[in-house]
Amino acid sequence: MAGPGSGNIVHTLLLVAGIVLTAGVLGVVIAILVNENNTNTNTNTIYNGTNTYNSTIQYNSTYVYNSTIIEIDIASKVLNVAQPAKVSPGTDKYNSYQQVVQLFKASVNLSVDPCNDFYAYTCGNFKGDMSFDISDNSNTNDMVTRLTNDTYISTAPLPVQQTRWYFDTCVNARQNWNTIADGSVVTAAINQLAAGNPGKHENSTKFPFPMLDQKTDVTTFPDRFGLGYLTGSLTAQGVDTIISAGVDTNWKDPAGPEGFAYLIDQPTTFAPNTYYLKDFDALNASLTYQITENMLQLAKVQNKTLDANILAKDVQDIIKLDYLLATKFSTDDTTRRQYDRSYNPNTLPQLLTQYHKDVFSWHMFLPIAVGTAEHVLDKLLDQGSGYNYYITMEPTKLNMLLTSLNKDNTLGITPRALVNYFYYRLVDSLSEFLPAPPAGNMIRPFVKIERQPVGRPRHVLPEDRKYERKLIEDLTEAQYSCAQETIDIQYANARLFIDQIYPTATDRKNVREHVAKVASSIVIGFRSMIDQLNWMTPSTKKGAYNKIENLVKNIAYPDWITDDAQLTAYHAPMNFTKTDTYVDMFFNVQNFNLYSQWDQLVQGPADRTGFNGPPGITNAWYQPELNSITFPAGILKKPFYDFNWPASVNFGAMGVIAGHELTHGFDDQGVQWNGVGTLSGWMDATSKVSFTNMAQCVVNEYSGFCPLDKATYGSAACIDGAQTQGENIADNGGIHSAFRAYKNYVDLYGPDPVLPDPQLQYFNPDQLFFLSFAQVWCQMPYTDAQFLRQILVDVHSPSIYRVLGTIQNFPAFKTAFNCPSSTYAPDNHCNVWVSDIDTTFGLPNVKTDINVVPEAPITSTNVDKMNAYQMAVDYYAKSVNTAIDPCDDFYSYACGNFNQSVSFYTARAQNLVYMAQKLEDPTYQTTINSSPALKKEKQLYNACLTATASSQSEDQILISKNYIQTKVDDLKTLIGQDFTLVNGGAPKLPSAKQIGDALGYLSFEQGIDTLISPLVDTYWIDNSKGYQMFIDQNTAYLSKTYYQPAAWKIEKPKYLKMALDVVTRYAREQNITLPAGASDLLSNVLDYEQNIAVKYSTDDNTRRQFQRSWNLTKTSDLVTKYNFMDWMTYLSHAPNAVKAKITDANYQVSVMEVDRLTHFSADYLQQSPELLVNLLFVRLLLGNAQYIPSYASAFRGMTDESIFLGLSRRKTIPNHIPPPNFDLEANGPACASVANNLMQFANGRVFVDYMYPTAQDVTNIRKSAGGIIKNVISSFQGMIDQLDWMAPDTKQKAYAKTVQIQQNIAFPDWIKNDTLLGNYYSTLVIADSDNFYDIYDKLIKFNIFVQYNQLNAAQTDRTDFLGQPGTVNAWYQPELNSITFPAGILVPPYFNPNWPPSINYGGMGLVAGHELTHGFDDQGVQWGPTGNLARWMDDNSMAGFKNMSQCVINEYSGFCPLNATNYSPNCVKGPQTQGENIADNGGVHAAFNAYKTHQSLDGPDPRLPDRLFGQFTHDQLFFMSFAQVWCEVRRTDDALYTQIMVDPHSPSMYRVYGTIQNFPAFQTAFNCPLGSKSAPEQHCEVWVPGKYQ
Questions:
Q1: For residue 47, which of 131, 121, 105, 104 has the smallest C-alpha distance?
Q2: Which GO BP annotation is one of this protein's (predicted)?
Q3: Which of 290, 670, 1343, 1589 could disulfide-link to 665, CB 3.0 to 4.6 Å?
Q4: What is the pLDDT of residues 1560-1589, one digit of tens each?
Q5: Cα–Cα distances in Å, from 1383 out to 751, 1140, 1231, 1310?
């Protein structure tokens, strides 16, 4: 091979190109590039002449290749491998690639050996500004361009215009700085401080400034008010002194209602702590000079002459005090990296008690310190508010300091030095407003305290600030300086900056999407590193994954700044005007920024998406308190990032920065915070040992980097590895994750073209990645002073060591550059967030950290159980929306995708299908024919099918028989008046006999109660005496709550439309033309009904007390007490079976509303005859609308009666409102529905035969469902025992009531007996010639007979089901103390015997608990163990019960689903819904406790067989099942309004929400933080005791 030298370069390059195309031996390319101008052995100097590494590798002699010259294109052809792609000239990408070429050419020095000094290789020819400075300069130019654009400013939102005003006055001030820096600003500040706090403690807060006014002195220490005043006054101006105050997230509960905390920290001194510990002599000299010069300038502008000796003594005294504050009274930074030790929350009383209120007045300090943010004081100073987040970060140091500020201290602290210190700290903060010293050098504040919106204040040295307040005559320079200053108005500045660099929505979308792709790739890369770690336990990896999964990525800018209204609202406290001076604007902005900090204390939960920094700066940051990573727009540009750059360059620069910030979440500080920014360590002890070893390796490694001479600088000559470990670990982890992300990106999108340069084209992408990484840190060589400053104070290592320390720990660099063992590729290095691959083989040993076997999955061994589990999955899949936070909105979480009828409707519809199928089952006909009762039902069913086969056949029957006219004629005859609404005329007021006949006919023969309501119930006082007849107040067509004035406005139009349609259809069928004004008259009739319903009715809340309704009265006395009606005529219409009994003069009835009935009777003669008579006829039509052809369509639009659990004995026959439209097959299920309503027990038999065909099936259902019910009852007994507000005697009575509850499950036994069932229906006679409506009419009368025939029973039957076995419902009956679960509800989604207990108890168990709790709600507690009306709760216990009830009332009254502007009331009626709400709350407690008991006895169940739903624990499934019961499609606002007006049940979402927020078990199951919507700190304890602690 030819000898070395420039003559063989061409040949060698051609040779190398061929090799690159085949083997990618990239080190050879580098060797050639390195040796192009260097043929000697490389000896490279790392930096500054301090560390020299001798290279023994001679690249031109180490590798020998075949001397045959192969042209690149020939090599490609020989190997059949394509050449690297090249970028096409003239394109945007080509221009961007050229920028990369120029970027590298301006810095790389190819003569240096990259393996021994990669920093010099990359940065050896670097001259000019560092990459960060280049970016900052570019950003500033963009800001100036936009700030000086008058057209843009003229239409910009106010905060942007204010920023322009600030900019203009700032530029003017810079160019005339001598008129600004005349000392007046500083003098005014001193005078303001010296004036003291006006008021009670004015004298205690006035102090001279003896260092300036040497004729004065301070000989006694400030008292507690004076010390609080001085400290608070400086804090209010952003200058912390002996105590540092600020705001950060509430570390332990950032998502709670108190998301921010008030931090009380150790002193803030002139310089960071490390200056005092490592180089105090130099600091002392610097401070002495600066303080002296500032004081001389200040004295000069005030025409004072200072004694040099006195001044020198004062200066040294305050420096000494500052030194003590930084050392004795402060904890070192390394110790403070452990955050838990600093989280010491206090209430205000605790703060006063524990931190020397005798020395320091917190009541003086706190109000002053918040400055203009006075609105936060209501929280801070209210000792009763329970605000518990005054966080004293260094309690021991604070107490030590406060006890030292007195005459007895031994530290040499004098009162004069202390007061001088406060005054001078104020002077120092404003020293830029003093004239420049004679030498012309500006003495700036020694250190500026930068306050981020989130996080502790931090020091920023003067050289770190990009602008100076000084005389700048050049306009361009002044604009540059002032544009930088406007960044202090960070979000208004950000808006104009964003408008400049991303002028269109497309620009903004593109940059965010591309950077998000890079950032997400980094996150994925880092996660893969976690995956590979062999020293991290599975549980700790879970914590790490949680941090990654919950990471917030903020890109470019916060969205809200582009919304003019939000931007303006945020800046409202910044209220300077265009005509204000620069100084006024300066202080206004300073106050605004401080206001914004304090304002967070009243903002509630911390906003994890907060940027917490200016979008216009070149920086990026990770915020552990938020677990957020932020890439402001200022860094998303060259030289860090460009959309068209090669991926290797973007990932090497911006990607490593992203990885660096991400790794901060996993450095020694980051691992103390969890995924949502809560201070909660997630690394276990085993993993922490390895992590500490990893961190210690990094500490040791970097501590060995010594850029200064040890003989001269001692310990300050070397990097402080402990101080810099966080940033060093971030650098190392960052480059690993970025490199992995870059490789993944290339694998997905393919390689980028080579750089368009004769030399740089030979760098392959991996090499470009490392070059790009190092190029970020290129800067001009440091002086010793600069090195010293950085070593002492900076948490970052110097740039050269950021590159060296990172690369030497990353073997991928060694591979990319083909390095042998060398300085940048040592054999031994630290593995930072990486480890060797697992080498185990064979069967994996999979176990948890606690060595507990996970729950076994369900298998198909038990087919029925597997199918049942899959059915549960299918139910959840149709409703659950896991995108919702369950702790924020569990109803939407459980029901967010629900899009079908509410479960009750769906289950009822399915049951009706089963009933129809069974009735039509050929194999079941023998059973039907052998049972007289079933034959009658089948007659009904068949007649219904025939009649409803078509609308024509149905109408034909109705028209031919004209049933409705017969009924109208009957009423006409009895009342002696015509239906004048239809026929015209003027009726008279019915006589006592006429009204008795009319009302008796309607109630006892038609089942339509009107002006009075008869009913049969148990003999309340002693149900062993059987049953009792009651006379109740009027019954309206709709539920009474619909007639309340506000609800009536909504309901009447629908009601009127329906009623008019029915009346019109009736008239048409009778060939009658309605009189003119019939509609108006009907409207008046309905209003009359509303008047009756309101005026002569007692409200439902009052009627919840039953004793008041037990008023036995002889029938003979009814006439004298309520003489508007002939009562014997009325009662004579009762069924024959009881007519003689109840018309006996001595028979007693119970008049339930004596006052209302008396009132109506007295007012009867004043009633409108027209309205009263027509109301009765209208009610007759509505109650028999099924006899009018095509009646059903008239009811469309009527409010559906609410679906609810429970049963009332007070209604004989339901209103004939057609049920909601189901997806029913043909008309069979609809006819089954008729049978279910009117032949409930015969139809119940059919349904039971379908559901439980064998005796074993019956046994099984009663055992499984009965077991749940018994467990729920037992659980409730335990709840009673634990109550702390119920007296022992009352507990015994309550327990007795639970023991004696009659449990009715599935169906009454007697319906399976054909004889007994036949006897029940024996009086029902159906002829073969009867059509459907004949049978229907007979069944109405039959059911009325059944009700009143109970009056002949000797005693109450407590086993009475009271309802259809086939209905989807359940009920508790207080008069029987019975709880009934018909077969109709023992179906999914409430119950399946093969479901896990969690789901069954969440569904069926919850229903059982709900109904059981009704026995103990405000109505249930009035009834005893056997169902007798007997109060058993003592007064004290009743008071406790009422307190519990009132809590529920108040809670639910606060649920407001509607806009108050459009609806009033817009909230749930707590008193109206209390019974159901108490039942829901008590029910869920009883059901959950029963489920846990069941689980403890039977052991765990498999999880659901599904990827998603298999992740739910069984506790979570319990609550999911509970919520499923109430899932529904959200009602319209009008429908919701109607519901809250009239319904005794809360809207579905609040039935879920109100219940779970009162049940901490839900919070535990779903890990809800205290203070979240589902886990409020205060909640109602319903049928459970208060907290144990």
A1: 121
A2: protein processing
A3: 670
A4: 999 999 999 988 888 898 899 999 887 654
A5: 68, 38, 19, 15
